[in-house]
Amino acid sequence: MPVFRLNKLIRDKLPAIYESIGQKAKLRILSKDEHTQALLDKIVEEVNEIPESNITKKKLVEELADMQQAIDDIKKINGLTNEEVAKAQKAKDEYKGGFSRGIFIEELELKHNDTWIDYYRADPDRFPEIKK
Fold it and tell me: Which pTM value belongs to this model?
């Protein structure tokens, strides 16, 4: 019988479904820290399942539902309330705004003494420095 390594978080009812159709799953329960990381990984997985073009409304709704479930579970296992998250979201919106205008930054030129230089240089894969 073929065996596949999945190594990912699954929905709570899937073990019973696997068993009901004759599949045998090797399972374990994650620690709180592992669970939080697995939920963050799940969000990335769901984002990557959204095709870059020709996405249907139905598929988008399904993937957003999976991401929202992961976010809700992260809040739950870490004892965070919707109110705390909403307060932080409101504060960020008031200070920095949202993402509704679709503003996309391509490059950012800094002065030589800018305190953000070390931040950007610390992650060159994400923020490659352009030599001019």
Answer: 0.78
